[in-house]
Amino acid sequence: MEIIIKGASEEFAEKLVALAAQHHAELSISTVQPGWTVDRAERYLRSLTASGRRMAQMVIVDGNGYLEADKLRSELGKLNGPSNSLKRAVDRGVRKDWWPEGTPAPITPVSNPANPSWHQNIAYRMDQELVPVFRQALTRTMGFPPADNDEDHDRHP
């Protein structure tokens, strides 16, 4: 018999194993952690539309994790389609079990802090620890070389 439990916390898994042991049952549980690996990032990038992939590439390579929305708009035009592609790829990955629920979106919009109710974003960002992971995934998927030296790039929030 095989029992599959998705989305369980480590704490729940430990309690379940202990309960099974009390009843002399053999049980093993593997938990999958949310987060981005190079393999997950590669699958994410491959699942994007062409404009979504270009937007991701620009944020990762050109912006080193932070790129002004105006720069993206100058090359891509309206950002509705590309940004929707980024969001839908995360949801699709959860639905298809490519990564677990709770895996955060790798690229997120930055709202204008002076006017957060106005919905046009001022930038798009990626956490700095994800930039090398996604650079490596880009290299695999599109043949981009890694940055010469990440420390030479400006760091943004």
Descriptive account of the structure:
The protein is mainly alpha-helical and 157 residues long. It contains 6 helices and 3 strands. The protein has helices at 10-22, 38-47, 50-62, 69-76, 80-95, 131-142, and strands spanning 66-68, 108-110, 123-125. Strands 1-3-2 form a 3-stranded antiparallel beta sheet. It is elongated. It starts with 9 loop residues before the first helix and ends in a 15-residue tail after the last helix.
What share of the residues lie within helices? 40-55%
Rg from Cα? 19 Å
Give the overall shape, derived from the CA principal axes.
elongated
Low-confidence stretches: 146-157
Order of helices and strands: HHHEHHEEH
How many distinct helices?
A: 6
Terminal CA distance reads 48 Å
Q: Sheet with the most strands?
A: 3 strands, antiparallel
State the strand order across the main sheet: 1-3-2
Number of beta strands = 3
Structural class given helices, strands, pairing? mainly alpha
The portion of residues forming beta strands comes to 5-15%
Mean pLDDT: 83
List keywords for this structure.
disordered C terminus, 3-stranded antiparallel sheet, about 160 residues, mainly alpha, elongated
Task: Explain the layout of strands and helices.
Elements: H1 10-22, H2 38-47, H3 50-62, E1 66-68, H4 69-76, H5 80-95, E2 108-110, E3 123-125, H6 131-142
Antiparallel strand pairs: 1-3, 2-3
Helix pairs in contact: 2-6, 3-5
Produce a short descriptive summary.
The protein has 157 residues and is mainly alpha-helical.
